Amino acid sequence: MSVPSIWAGGMIIHVVQQSAFARRNTLMKLVDANDYAQMMTVDNIVEGFIARDAKLQRLGERMGKTEFDACRTLAELERSLETRGPHESPVFFYALPQNVHIATSALRKMPAGERYPGFFDKVAAGVHEVDACVGHFVSYLKRAHLSDDSVIILTSDHGDSLGEEGRWGHAFYLYPECDACAAHRAPAVVAEDARDDGCRRCRVFHRHCAHALRAARLHSARPGVAFRSAAVRRSRR
Amino acid sequence: MMLARAVGRERRFGFVGALRCWGFVVLLAASVTLVEARLVGASLAFTGRDAWVASAALGIAVAATWAGVVRACARTHAQLAPQSSAATPDSLAVFAGSVAGRGTRIAAWSVLVVLPFVAYWPGGGSRAIRLELSHAEAERAGRVAHRVLRCLRGRWRSACARIDIRRCWRRHLSRRSRSTAVSRHVEPGVVLERYAPVDPSFRLIRDARTMRSAETAEHYAFLHSQTLVPPPRVHPVDIDFVSPLKPAEGRKPHVFLLVVDSMRRDYVSAYNPAVTFTPEIGKLAADSFVFQRAFTRYSGTGCRCRRSGRAA
Known about the structure:
The complex is a heterodimer of chains A (237) and B (312). By secondary structure, chain A is of the alpha/beta class. Chain A is built from seven helices and eight strands. In chain A, strands 2-1-3 form a three-stranded parallel beta sheet. Chain B folds into three domains: 2-129, no CATH class; 134-185; 192-235 and 254-312, no CATH class.
């Protein structure tokens, strides 16, 4: 359910497959309004609320949701970017790679001697894998002179309980939670060239994606309900 | 004991037959152990010595049960056809016949081939289980199953005559693709059954839906009675979260949004200095905005929260 909330830019009702989501789909409105070419992995969550038109290029088309791999997807993205001309419309890329998901991590074969002390080895190995692919992709953007015209948002939907306080689980038992609310903290790294005052300690409820795009001057209209919430407060680090 | 009684003392197969029968039982136990440990246990992150011991116990139990069925079948066979009792029955054929109704040795050995094949799906053990097969893999599996059955059909014609596995599989695939293309709404029961073996929380949700025991029924009935949300399905409010947007002026950057499923913040060096395995993300973060107080709006996966009272 955190995935639709990322697209909506706000809390949505408690179902994953959102019916008639178009009006709440803030991110897609941003993308459409600015005429972005879409390159996305389409899983069972987003397939219900994206338009299958000429602007959409599916990545990993023959894969199931659990097969989406950050490295393969980013490599496919690189190949697609290389074929684009300099005057074509900008690209919006979205992917939900499963490298770290417990169903993938639990079956990962760990190379002999590879250990991550203090961490759950197989999950840490998945994160390490993603890290290498992200690094490779960032290098590509620099080589292709695209990095100055790019916003990279690296985030997550939630985290698993990996034995903390005796709890294991993916959906209900999450870690780390915050103390006084049902939400839990998620990583959010946003790279863009417009690093001015640096809103690094904004309290954001997974609307940081829309917030980041607004910071990148993509969102020119007056902020709507999702952006006006008092939950977003800017302060310097 | 059951195993010994079922197989070791079984004299109808003769010495060689009993030996072969023993070998089959041992292989069956090993196969089930392998599948249980590699497929079920590993997917629940239940590994190590305990997992193998538990899997071995299950494997022996399954083999013993099957051997018991074989013994009963062999006895029935002797009673029904006493005139042919002089001929030593084929132990492997009887083994397969216990389940299929009509046995062949190739069917018996196929069991032993298929079980480890399931555990070690091509591509390595790490690909042994998926929450869902891709379309291409499903087609490939259907083709393999069809070839196997075609091979068996010559000897097993009467049993297979009514089954056209390829047609069944195609029908399943077309139904699946039709349901995803048209309804776009995944049936909750199907999703739960798919995730429940690999995720304890989904088992919890499934229990809430099916109320399989008096304890869970009472618990969830209480939660249900306490929730403020009425039982009928809650439909999202159809509103615009933002006003109609106009295109931005000036240059438009490429946007790359990577949502890494289930990645915890304390496994990323930008948030936890103890992390040494994300140097590239660390470099990216050093040159980026890093949101220190980012919260997900709702972190659960796929639940109907009103069922368990969480919406209250």
